[in-house]
């Protein structure tokens, strides 16, 4: 049976699907959810905090893990790109048995592979808790995890996560929306800052002047002092007040190397701070 526009729908969905690589693991899949580089995938696709993403046009970009929920098996990544072909997240409560379902992913090394079938049911499955699954009788293989399950219009109705018997199971798109709409999690550095321009260094250099430091915070453990000026990280210099919250975005434990000035500003100092830890797990190594 021929479907009008089926090829165009599949190609649009393929362009919104990415390859996710994490360490030595086999590649998984992900879905572009915003034109500004927000990507959602399964948490089990990621082995740690570091991942890379390959776009449909072949570009490979380092991805920053910004949100993770192991219990719901969802993770959000952000890549430094704009004007990306974002997918549309449909209302999964409207999905009905018998509808056409399309899956795009990267199974067994095949990038952008298409599988099609029909929706079998939407609801919980014995042994998998009370959560609902979008169940489809289409074929998935390792590498499809994190990719889109879509309707005939190409709108995403779920994130493919596992196989049970002959059924593909996807996390409903409404669960994905709730996950992405949750409160933004940020690590704690423990400083209050004010924007300044560093004097006596030729061109005006923007920095963040540390005014106060919380006791026991990562900043205190890193031996920062009031009067120090934060200049940026290894990923780039600070150009505005928004840059520090961007560095702290995501509650995931990770190391961040901060550049700063102290005293006569003659030497740029650096310190590696562990963010996202709790209590005694927070530590810093200066250099």
Question: What's this entry about, in short?
Answer:
The protein is mostly beta strands.
What is the H-and-E element order? HEEEEEEEEEEEEHEEHEEHEEE
Low-confidence spans: pLDDT under 50, at least 5 residues? 279-287
Mean pLDDT: 87
Shape: elongated
Output the structural class: mainly beta
- Radius of gyration from the alpha-carbon trace, in angstroms: 22 Å
Report on this structure.
With 287 residues, the chain is mainly beta. It folds into 3 domains: 6-78, Trypsin-like serine proteases (Thrombin, subunit H, Beta Barrel); 92-176, Trypsin-like serine proteases (Thrombin, subunit H, Beta Barrel), CATH 2.40.10.10; 191-286, PDZ domain (Pdz3 Domain, Roll), CATH 2.30.42.10. Helices cover 10% and strands 40% of the residues. The chain has 4 helices and 19 strands. Strands 13, 14, 15, 16, 17, 18 and 19 form a 7-stranded antiparallel β-sheet that branches. Strand 4 (50-54) and strand 5 form a beta hairpin. The longest helix is centred in the first third of the chain and has 10 residues, at 6-15. The chain is elongated. The N and C termini lie far apart (66 Å). The model is unreliable at 279-287 (pLDDT under 50).
